[in-house]
Design goal:
280 residues; alpha+beta; Beta-Lactamase; Rossmann fold; 2 domains; five-stranded antiparallel sheet; elongated
Amino acid sequence: MLQLHDWMLLFSSTVRNIDTGGFIQSITRPLKMLVPVENLVIMMFRENAPPTVLHDALHEREHEMFYRQYMKGGYLFSPYYHAWRHDAGSGLYRMLEIMPEDFADTDAYRNYYLQNGLMDDMGYLIDLEEDAAILIGFGIYSREYTADELTSLREIEPMITACGYRHWHRMGKLMPDSSNLERQIHQKLEGAIDNFGDSILSNREAEIAQLLLRGHTTKSAAGKLNIAPGTVKNHRNNIYFKLDINSQSELFSLFIQSVIHTQPGQAGDPLTGFFDRPAH
C-alpha cells in the first residue's frame, strides 16, 4: 500500500500535467497502481451528439465490438450514459450498482456487456457542466474487484474528479462538433426511442416499450413507473401482441428495422407507416 507521501507525488504529477498532452497518462497512473486495469476507455458525453472517444486501451476483440456496437448506438443503452442523462453527478460508479434491476437478463446486456467478458466494470463520471461529462471507464476480466480495492478507488475519487474537471471542463466548448451525419444519427436514435410506439400503442404501453428499449426489465420498469410488475407484464404482453413480436429481442430488432426504414425528415414514432410499407 502506498504511503501518503507517495500519493502526493503521484497526484502532484497529475496536477502539473493539467492542460498538457501527458494528462491522461498521469491521471490513470494512480488508478492502475491501486487495482488491476485490463480495460480502459475515456470518452466525453455531450448533449445531442454521440460520445467522443478521447483514449482507449482495449483488447483487440473488445476494440472491434466497442466501435462496431457501442459507438454505433449501443451507448444509448449504457447505464453510465443513463446516469449522466439523469444528472447522477461526478463520482465513482460501478456497473453492478447502477444498472437497472435484472439488466443482466436483457438483450442489451447480452449483446454487448456479456460478450466483452468483463467480470467487473467501473467508471469515474466527471460532470463538466455545459451539458457534458467525461467517463473514465475501466474493468477487469479475471475477477471482481475486492472490497479493499473498491474502498481505495472511492478514496481517490475526489482527486480524480477534481483534476479531471480542471483539465476537461473547457473541452466541451473547444472540441470540434460531431459531423452532421453523426449528430443526425444520434438525434434520430434518441427521438425514435422517445416516440417509439406512440402511433400504435396506448400511452402506457408506449411508455413501457420505450423503457424496455432503454434496457429496463419488467421489475425495473415497474419501479420507475411506480406500478406493479404484474401490470407491466400485462402491458408488455399487449405490446408484443400489437406489434406481432414475442420477445424483448424482437422488440429491439423491430426498433432497428423501423428506424432504418423511416423516410428522410420523418419525425415522431418510427413505426408510423412501417407496417404499411411495400414488401420487397
